[in-house]
From TrEMBL:
<protein>
    <submittedName>
        <fullName>Glycosyltransferase</fullName>
        <ecNumber>2.4.-.-</ecNumber>
    </submittedName>
</protein>
<dbReference type="GO" id="GO:0016757">
    <property type="term" value="F:glycosyltransferase activity"/>
</dbReference>
<dbReference type="InterPro" id="IPR001173">
    <property type="entry name" value="Glyco_trans_2-like"/>
</dbReference>
<dbReference type="InterPro" id="IPR029044">
    <property type="entry name" value="Nucleotide-diphossugar_trans"/>
</dbReference>
<feature type="domain" description="Glycosyltransferase 2-like">
    <location>
        <begin position="7"/>
        <end position="138"/>
    </location>
</feature>
<comment type="similarity">
    <text>Belongs to the glycosyltransferase 2 family.</text>
</comment>
<keyword id="KW-0808">Transferase</keyword>
<keyword id="KW-0328">Glycosyltransferase</keyword>
<dbReference type="Pfam" id="PF00535">
    <property type="entry name" value="Glycos_transf_2"/>
</dbReference>
<feature type="region of interest" description="Disordered">
    <location>
        <begin position="319"/>
        <end position="352"/>
    </location>
</feature>
Length: 352
């Protein structure tokens, strides 16, 4: 296969995890052609520390937003940069995803049994946690337009399953998909932007889970996110986005009764939060649920000039572009140049 593959990693204040992800990308049996590192406004000296890490940066583009706009904007910005840069495929993940060495090779090998890229939505790796248990499980494609049985299992003997919704954790997306379907809407801010994007795509194009391709997700919280069990006060405040986005997605893609089921679940959680005296959780549930009916996320095409103008490129194929904060005038950097790491509470909260 001669097409170029750009790996996109969205990062925010998790330098140690980021190094692990970059190391896993550089250990692929089918090397990536470019790594786009989208820094979503980190405050931990990520760039200077990366320069001082000794990691091979010759294929790395470092793109930075000056403040954290949320994961949804980070994915939009990074995908748009990759498309504008000419990538044929964009391999998307967070900074806590460790693809197995043959992860990308297995995704690309599966193309021999699948539609051509122009008729393909995306490919998804199998994702597990550190303990080997499933995480970010995609939704099997049950929909059918011809009145027959869904054929999600047609390729099962080859370890390939048709899906309709997936998380952006080791997701390989052809350029043609990103040209036809706008990347995740920044209006989601966090939680749900990946569901909305993949559901938009699979409404028209098939997408597949590739069982031979595996990635490990080093999530800070292995269980599903729940406002009733969240202990971080800032992260709990952001739960309103999760509630809003969940209701919107049910209303937009699944219909009346699934939306009502989602509302019933949110209402039950709201009552339990009040009974337990967990007023921050109750507030997040109420505000998020009510705002869902006014929520109309805007879909901005890839590489929109206005949004693209808001990032800075600090490295292009490992070469310095300009002089970012924290670097020496001669273009070198050591750990002594790194500002003291003093992340705000928002740092953890904005990392899903």
């Amino acid at each position: 296969m001669s097409e170029t593959v750009t790996a996109l990693v969205v990062t925010y204040n998790r330098f140690e995890l980021l190094l692990l992800t970059l190391g896993a990308l550089q250990a692929q049996t089918r090397p990536v052609d470019r790594i786009v590192l989208l820094d979503n406004g980190s405050s931990d000296g990520t760039f200077a520390r990366l320069l001082a890490s000794g990691l091979d940066l010759r294929r790395v583009d470092y793109v930075r937003l000056d403040s954290n706009r949320g994961p949804a904007r980070g994915f939009w910005q990074g995908m748009s940069y990759a498309v504008a840069d000419g990538a044929d495929w964009v391999w998307v993940m967070d900074d806590d995803v460790l693809p197995d060495p043959d992860c990308l090779e297995s995704l690309l090998r599966a193309l021999d049994r699948l539609p051509p890229p122009a008729a393909l939505g995306y490919l998804q790796s199998r994702v597990v946690g550190e303990d080997g248990r499933s995480q970010n499980t995609p939704e099997v494609a049950w929909r059918t337009e011809d009145g027959n049985y869904p054929d999600w299992e047609r390729l099962l003997k080859h370890g390939i399953v048709a899906t309709s919704k997936a998380a952006l954790t080791s997701t390989l997306i052809p350029r043609t998909t990103l040209e036809r379907f706008p990347p995740p809407s920044p209006d989601f801010f966090m939680w749900g932007e990946d569901s909305d994007f993949t559901l938009r795509v699979t409404a028209d194009l098939p997408a597949f889970l590739i069982g031979a391709s595996r990635a490990v997700h080093l999530r800070r919280i292995a269980r599903p996110v729940n406002p009733l069990t969240e202990t971080d006060p800032v992260r709990l405040r952001y739960m309103r986005y999760k509630c809003r986005n969940n209701v919107y997605i049910r209303r937009r893609y699944y219909g009346f009764w699934p939306m009502m089921d989602c509302l019933w679940g949110a209402g039950s959680q709201f009552v339990r939060a009040l009974v337990r005296g967990n007023l921050p959780a109750a507030r997040a549930l109420a505000l998020g649920t009510l705002s869902a009916f006014r929520f109309r996320p805007r879909l901005t095409p890839a590489a929109d000039p206005a949004l693209m103008a808001e990032h800075r490129v600090l490295l292009r194929q490992g070469q310095r572009v300009g002089r970012p904060d924290g670097a020496r005038p001669d273009g070198t950097a050591t750990l002594s140049d790194v500002p003291d790491y003093a992340p705000t509470a928002d740092a953890a909260a904005l990392s899903p």
